[in-house]
Design brief:
By secondary structure, the protein is α/β, with parallel strands linked by helices. It has 7 helices and 15 strands. It has a 7-stranded mixed beta sheet with strand order 1-2-3-4-5-8-9. The longest helix has 15 residues. Bound molecules: zinc ion. The site of zinc ion has 5 residues, from loops.
Length: 288
């Protein structure tokens, strides 16, 4: 799946897509509450009101020219062979993610930049891959951009026991390889791509803004996990580190995006994944 934003292309590489089983993440999104939001079907919910969710990476390719084109991977999913994950089905994955990435024209050696919108387990996995007994950087020719605030938060406090294996196998190896650049939450990557601070889900969470030839897109990261939160911005995710701040960020972003031509590309949105935010009563919907 591919979108054009001016001269920039964005390509979705799916790692896994699941229906149901997301109640732990969005407890208010019961089937009874989801079914009346008719526009969620068929892309984002099934006919029984069960949520569909996707874990995918988005490859942003900017045009060539004097400064050369960029090949940027936004978020690196769960990864293969990882262990000690809190969610049982996220252990020891053996997906064709890297082959799919190469088949889309993006062999891992050709990626020059990796952006982690935040450092949760499903956004850092393919930072590394298992070679023999060692975790090595999957993208050896890339700079890995991680937020200074985000990095300090997770490496400075280890009371979140579930983060310890994630840092050890997916963050520390790229840090030790000297590939990490710590950046501010409003960092500009190149002429067309910059970061937008969207805190609350995690302290240093960012979204990714793309602008080219008068067209614009926004890659959400996890300030929204599912399009049902466009209709119900007050529905919080249990994964939000500061639910109040996350809700304020979500409401502010939706207000800004509503009734604009900005293409919103959801980091966990299944199906067709992207659309425009339009006002719908006292909330919003995603127009695909
Ligand atoms: Zn996530």
């Amino acid at each position: 799946m591919k979108w054009r934003v001016g001269e920039v292309t964005v390509t979705k590489i799916v790692e896994i897509e699941v229906t149901g089983g997301s109640r732990f993440l969005l407890p208010q999104a019961t089937p009874e509450a989801v079914l009346p939001i008719g526009w969620l079907q068929p892309d984002f919910a099934d006919e029984r009101g069960r949520l569909k969710m996707s874990i995918h990476a988005l490859v942003v390719e900017t045009p060539g020219g004097k400064t050369g084109g960029r090949r940027i991977v936004v978020d690196t999913c769960l990864g293969n062979d990882k262990e000690n994950r809190r969610i049982p089905t996220w252990n020891n994955l053996q997906t064709s993610f890297l082959a799919d990435l190469a088949a889309a024209g993006y062999a891992r050696e050709t990626i020059d930049t990796v952006i982690c919108t935040h450092l949760h387990v499903d956004h850092v996995g393919w930072n590394t891959m298992l070679v023999g007994e060692r975790w090595v950087p999957t993208f050896p020719n890339a700079r890995y951009l991680m937020g200074r605030v985000e990095f300090a938060h997770w490496t400075g406090q280890h009371e979140r026991a579930d983060m310890i294996p994630v840092l050890a196998d997916s963050v520390t190896p790229v840090w030790d390889a000297g590939l990490v650049d710590l950046i501010e939450t409003d960092h500009r990557i190149c002429g067309e791509v910059s970061l937008v601070p969207t805190p609350g889900h995690t302290p240093g969470h960012v979204s990714v803004r793309i602008a080219s030839q008068g067209e614009e897109a926004l890659i959400t990261g996890d300030f929204m996990h599912h399009p049902c939160q466009i209709a119900r911005p007050d529905w919080s995710s249990t994964a939000d580190s500061d639910p109040d701040e996350a809700r304020r960020t979500r409401e502010a972003m939706l207000t800004d995006l509503a009734d604009t031509p900005i293409l919103v590309i959801g980091t966990h949105f299944a199906g067709r994944t992207a659309g425009r935010i339009v006002r719908d009563g006292d909330a919003y919907r995603l127009a695909i």
